[in-house]
Design goal:
This protein has one domain. Helix content is 8%, strand content 53%. It contains one helix and seven strands. A seven-stranded mixed beta sheet has the order 1-2-3-4-5-6-7. The longest helix has 7 residues. The radius of gyration is 13 Å and the shape is globular. It starts with a strand and ends in a 5-residue tail after the last strand.
Amino acid sequence: MILEGEFKGYKLNGQGRQIKIDSYYVGSFKDGLKNGNGTLTFIGNSSSFTGNWVNDKLVAECLGQLAEKVKNPASVVFDYIQSSKP
């Protein structure tokens, strides 16, 4: 994994980029976790999704849209939170 962007200590804080073998994320981070608006792009099929993240998890209301864009959604597992919870 490659991390680029604004760091506080050894963790991404602010705007940054996280690059993995099969995907990359560009957006906001807090304490090294995805937080706020960001775009996740899958390299294999060039699908991308822009949504809101809280503590490295997609907000639940965005998951349906993501599943439509991913070729094999069963291969992508996301923890999520309900968007109505604080």
